[in-house]
């Protein structure tokens, strides 16, 4: 049964919406796999993946099936009650990770908010109120709540909203000496992305994460990994920290966890989790049966050796081709990342022009992203077909050829 809708157009956005976004000039209306169609019927190849969210592309049958089945069963009961999908998804996350306990919420920002509050509460309970300082990396990104923008090391997102949350220090990423100098017995947590996403798709060095783990242990601080962008198979392991062999105390996940349905999760140990006793934290929609049913289907598909190996293979295929294009057209000085989180660093001549490359790509019907004005980012579906990779990159090459002509 289809409903008749009133016609809408892109100009309506400028009349109706708060102007904090500047969306593209077209409106996507339908997606299938790694292809998207706009209102005019134009078909685009999707290398953006809803910003590393659409882990199985658009309208994957396993996700559509899980959502539809749950939609006909139970939508919402709140956390006055528990529900079966939440318990099943929690068990799958615990079985697949270091974690023993799970807290569900609705977004990456909320997962990080919970992680930061938990870290402060743990230190407060164990050592007293003095131990509340959080160390994070410059150019990090952890969400858009006041706490999470204060923790993230990008002033452009946190300035202009009144007094910032106190007790937060920022150090350069991948600089162990700087972290060593900053950490003290007042530190309750060190927060890192195993690969800085918004900061330019910049992977951590193994020795840096190992050093951070050792420093946290020495100072009774918790190590938090923000895996909102890097988690759920994006890098070819279920979570990126598994590449480095370093285990956090708390991990945040979202984006790909729901494959396009809003869900976030904070994972931790029993020992740490016990500090969030009844009433200390909550969320109305967290653990919603619809979201958890979809998340469970995502886990079932993604957390398999075939899919994870496929991510590594596809990532190598894309990266190799992007290196080749970057050299041929003189636009990329480096292609970095892991799996299907790929950042192409612009050469000096093209610095600051990531948006121009995005716009040129869109004209050739391929959707890509930026991660800072100096890095072009690719975060496609983890199960994207080789044919879609090749077609998308052929279109991307046409865009580069026109742009550099």
From TrEMBL:
The keyword Cytoplasm applies. Pfam families: Aminotran_3. The keyword Cell inner membrane does not apply. GO terms for biological process: L-arginine biosynthetic process. It is found in: Cytoplasm. Its cofactor is pyridoxal 5'-phosphate. Pyridoxal 5'-phosphate binds at residues 108-109, 141, 226-229, 284. GO terms for molecular function: identical protein binding; N2-acetyl-L-ornithine:2-oxoglutarate 5-aminotransferase activity; pyridoxal phosphate binding. N(2)-acetyl-L-ornithine binds at residues 144, 283. InterPro entries: Ac/SucOrn_transaminase_bac (IPR017652), AcOrn/SuccOrn_fam (IPR004636), Aminotrans_3 (IPR005814), Aminotrans_3_PPA_site (IPR049704), Class-III_PLP-dep_AT (IPR050103), PyrdxlP-dep_Trfase (IPR015424), PyrdxlP-dep_Trfase_major (IPR015421), PyrdxlP-dep_Trfase_small (IPR015422). Pathway: Amino-acid biosynthesis; L-arginine biosynthesis; N(2)-acetyl-L-ornithine from L-glutamate: step 4/4. One of its GO terms (cellular component) is cytoplasm. May also have succinyldiaminopimelate aminotransferase activity, thus carrying out the corresponding step in lysine biosynthesis. Homodimer. Belongs to the class-III pyridoxal-phosphate-dependent aminotransferase family. ArgD subfamily. This is Acetylornithine aminotransferase. It comes from Pseudomonas mangiferae.
